[in-house]
Q: What sequence folds into this?
């Protein structure tokens, strides 16, 4: 696949649907070097997922039965939002760990929502059954080319906004976002995967030499808790850097973002920064670093009605 | 005063101390036109006030007794932050309506903080007494040239970031920020003042033909509740547009910013947008509008330790 072309086409397709998200450079994170940040949590429905959802729906014929998605919450909200924006019905399956904020967010889109016991993989099983029974089109959360190409637009956009960094740190769940980064950057910049110690499907796959099942838990599990890394991501991830962060380090990074910059994010949104703050990743003296702030759907919702 | 020169000098002075804040354009605020936004609430200590504080301290000799400031909260936090950054002691007076979030924010800077009963004007009286007794240098919250020039850097920066708008909507308390806008823009773009119905010192002054005392109350009073508009602002505000918004409209705008973009702000930070959402200001068909998101120190603090 010519990923550069796919991502450029996706960027053209989703222009006017996805939000162009702002970027900033911070010297105030308690580190002795600056950090570039892209505030992708300001995207529609609070995460980068809207990019992949719009690209999927705008690049394929959507059946009358509409769309179906399984999600820890963020992808479901994005799929529901994109479907509503384009006039399609949406059926969303989320695990109960999605939590009240994300469930309320999806309900506000008007989607037909089912909350499934257990973890993300269970929601995916139900979504696949619904796809088979209804003929609805599945928008995969991470392991489909249109999803990856959509997420890749985030990095094309960032480069157009003047990204300087040598190295990007990106939180990983199923791997759609980091696959988009790898697919766009093609080695032009270093990409480092950051996963919670308790939800580390990519790290486990890199160690095993193939995708393997992991158990998932922890505070970021509803966003980063994929049981197995996506195959597209794994194929692109050959030899890449991978670090792990603790839940405590993630909470600390949430606090730093809020206190230093009034950036309020969910645990997954702070995970990449946590790798710098905790020392899980230490840049070389002249290495310029950037972190993608990927999700803002915090629970409890501070403005819950 | 040659304000353009003053503001350009201020911008050079505070570079590397103040945060360059990001900008974005939203089509998702429930309006049938786009809105440019500058996310100035991501500034150090959560509001534009850091600009004026740094400019004041960097343009004048600071006495050994350090600095003193009276503040509804945001200016005090900014003055304390700037003082600490530059190695000066700080004494801050806030009224009790500053609230626990802003009081905790100031305490985290290590400043010597006094909480004064009543409204902002009472804190100002005590700060002036402290200035007289100690020889500390007062950083006025809004009615001093160095403060206004510092706040004006926000608009110089925004223009350099590609601001397109014909019209800027800006929330007004004592008038330091909007004075900075008027001083920088010099009529090149329209500026509209937005005040809460219950804290409207500029609106009252424009109607009276001179600054007059008003009573202040309402949800934004700790940020926008000046008893009397600053004289610098009033002199620059000749003939400008002025609109009022209700507390309900402000709360609604806070919800819209959070739900559409995961931008969490205090009431004052949403006031300018509230003028658009409520119809208090309706742009002409081809008029491009921008709102400055000026403050993010919401209470209760969603991540209070």
A:
């Amino acid at each position: 696949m010519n990923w550069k072309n796919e991502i450029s086409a996706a960027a053209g397709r989703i222009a006017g649907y996805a939000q162009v998200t702002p970027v900033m450079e911070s010297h105030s994170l308690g580190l002795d070097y600056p950090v570039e940040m892209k505030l992708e949590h300001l995207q529609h429905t609070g995460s980068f997922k809207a990019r992949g959802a719009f690209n999927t729906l705008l690049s394929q014929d959507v059946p009358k039965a509409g769309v179906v998605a399984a999600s820890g919450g963020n992808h479901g909200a994005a799929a529901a939002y994109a479907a509503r924006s384009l006039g399609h019905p949406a059926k969303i399956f989320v695990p109960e760990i999605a939590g009240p904020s994300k469930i309320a967010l999806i309900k506000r889109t008007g989607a037909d929502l089912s909350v499934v016991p257990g973890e993300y993989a269970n929601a995916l099983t139900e979504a696949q059954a619904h796809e088979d029974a209804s003929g609805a089109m599945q928008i995969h959360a991470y392991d489909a080319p249109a999803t990856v190409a959509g997420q890749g637009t985030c990095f094309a956009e960032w480069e157009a906004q003047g990204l300087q960094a040598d190295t990007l740190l990106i939180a990983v769940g199923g791997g759609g976002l980091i696959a988009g980064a790898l697919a766009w950057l093609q080695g032009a910049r270093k990409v480092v995967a950051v996963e919670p110690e308790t939800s580390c499907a990519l790290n486990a796959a890199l160690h095993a030499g193939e995708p393997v099942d992991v158990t998932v838990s922890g505070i970021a599990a509803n966003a980063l808790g994929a049981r197995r890394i996506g195959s597209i991501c794994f194929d692109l991830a050959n030899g890449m850097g991978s670090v792990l962060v603790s839940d405590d380090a993630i909470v600390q990074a949430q606090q730093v973002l809020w206190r230093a910059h009034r950036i309020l994010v969910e645990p997954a949104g702070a995970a990449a920064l946590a790798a710098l703050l905790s020392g899980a990743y230490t840049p070389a003296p002249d290495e310029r670093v950037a972190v993608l702030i990927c999700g803002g759907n915090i629970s409890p919702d501070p403005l819950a009605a």
Observations:
- Chain B touches chain A through 33 residues (CB under 8 Å).
